[in-house]
Amino acid sequence: MKIKFIILLFSSIWLALLVRVFFLAVESNNYYERLSLQNTIKHEKIAPVRGEIVDRKNRPIAINKLGFKIQLAPHLRTKKHQKEFEEEVKLLTQLLPSLKKEKIIKNYKKKDSFYNHNFIDIVEFIPYDEMMPVYSVLNLRDNIKIVSAPKRYYPYKNIAAHMIGYVARANKKDIKNNTTLELIGYTGKTGLEKYYNKYLQGIPGEREIKVNANNREIEELSYTSPQEDRKLKLSMDIELQKYISSLFMGKVGAFVVMKTDGSILAAGSFPNYDLNIFVTGMSYKMYNELASSLDHPFTNKLTHGLYPPGSSIKPLLGLLYITSGKINEHWSVDCRSNLKIANRTFRCWKKKGHHHTDIIKAIRESCDDYFYKGSLILGNETMSKGLKRYGFGKKTGIDLPNEFIGVVPSRSWKLQKYHRSWNIGETANMSIGQGDFLTTPLQIARETALIATGKLITPHFAQEIGDRPYKIRYQEILTPLEKKKLPLIREAMIQVCNSPHGTATHYLHSKIKLAGKTGTAQVIGIKQDIKKRKLEHELSYYNRSHAWFTTYGPAKNPQYIVTVMIEHGGHGGHAAGAIVSEIYNRLLELGYIKNK
């Protein structure tokens, strides 16, 4: 009985072992075959080539220089492969003398680990001409891989720098928001390069390859091309931009030249900088000099510069006045230069006053007293609501990143920000574009277009995104009464530039008839006990007023808006009249303006 039991036990054990062997050898075959396949098939992403940016005449503004990056196989620093590593580094530095041995080793060490089985980038960029003579030698090396790697280049260097923007190495935050950047390595950081980054960067392709146990490629199984070279065509004329930039030599400020449909032909912020230094890298000394400059060269003043609008606000505020229902176009004041409000005296810029002044004269000669007294009738809330409806205190919607909205001060705004109540003097200050009222140069340009066309347009640089034209956008925001009274404001702005008493007339030499408004925005307050003001040129530079001059032309057939703001430029017409004239003359010369 015991013998039978022992035989049965052994038989059972052997049977179980046979069943297990059968399972491992046959039934698990499919599982291990799939596992084996995963270990030998790799999916390799292919970085797309960044799309170019061109101007309206297809002149290249942001392009890619042809070049290559160099990669080394992983795990070469082990004892077994150390000699190979040293040989490869030595060969590279011999064939390409511009390479530094220490930097190659440092770059390799950063990413070499037991967990990394991909080739490691050791040289980010070698120009095409430098690589070609040695390409065939390096390409035959098993441990070296030469990969196409174009580099961003800006042929016009500092021209329109703030508008175009630049690309630079992607950081962790960039990659978290856009995983494709882990493959590409670079991303748009500012300007149009940033705003249209996802379009310009393209979509990666993919290779499916078979590799052996040593991670060597045996066979390409499939290939999906990347979606790349996506072109962005701008409405900008880069040669016009270059010309206007020369007019701003030595000046600090901003300008914009815009069609009445919102298409921007040229725009600039000054001082500017060479975009290429952000691609190749700059020294700490250079960066600190730029970052610490009181003229803020890194700030795009067109969309990020916040300034009191000064008298440039008067045409739209005048429209608000005469359509408010509280006063009309026949209302007038007797300007005696000084107006007492509470315990403070509010002065008009003209020492002897403008005397009898209606809406036309108030805009033509920029009478402060008219706007002081009108503001006391309308009140702050009516003014604030109206100006916001006109587009102040809001983004214009331009295709640039992080646009500032400015400030339209009001009782509720002040209470929320400063926890203090509003006073009537602030209402008077606001009426001449001073106090806490802040705008960007682009907002002033858009409001000028509102007067010229009756529509609140959306400014834009893009003309074609690939094969799709940019869609023109605008809003109808004026009331029927405002549209009816708009010709009065236009006539006043024509007189600003053409009447003997206009604030801009004597500073213009434009070959076409313009309409516009000058502005002088103070940056320091004037004490009440000062009887005689200093002239602008008598003030120290950073105490001088900002100069505004915003225009449209031709006056009777508006086609273009030209707005110029010069920091600490003093009187708007004096500082900007010549520049504005030259811009319109060049537009006429280039055929952009069809008739006078």
Offer a few descriptive terms.
596 residues; alpha+beta; Beta-lactamase; 6-stranded mixed β-sheet; 20% strand
Q: How would you describe the overall organization of this protein?
A:
The chain is of the alpha+beta class and 596 residues long. 38% of the residues lie in helices and 20% in strands. The strands form 8 sheets. Strands 7-3-2-12-20-21 form a 6-stranded mixed β-sheet, with no helix packed on it. Helix 15 crosses helix 22. The longest helix is centred in the N-terminal third of the chain and has 26 residues, at 2-27. The protein is elongated. The relative contact order is 0.10. Residues 527-531 have low confidence and may be disordered.
What is the fold's blueprint, element by element?
Blueprint (H helix, E strand, L loop, with lengths): L1 H26 L1 H12 E6 L6 E2 L5 E6 L1 E6 L9 H14 L5 H11 L8 E8 H12 L4 E5 L2 E3 L7 H4 L2 E3 L2 H6 L3 H4 L1 E3 L2 H5 L1 H5 L3 E7 L5 E8 L7 E3 L3 H10 L5 E7 L4 E7 L5 H5 L3 H8 L9 H4 L9 H9 L10 E3 L2 E4 L2 E4 L7 E3 L1 H6 L3 H11 L1 H10 L21 H8 L5 H8 L9 H13 L2 E2 L4 E4 L2 E2 L4 E2 L4 H19 L16 E7 L24 E8 L6 E7 L5 H18 L7
Parallel strand pairs: 2-12
Antiparallel strand pairs: 1-10, 2-3, 3-7, 4-5, 4-6, 8-9, 10-11, 12-20, 13-14, 13-25, 15-18, 16-17, 19-22, 20-21, 23-24, 24-25
Helix pairs in contact: 15-17, 15-22, 17-20
Condensed summary:
By secondary structure, the protein is an alpha+beta fold. It contains 23 helices and 25 strands.
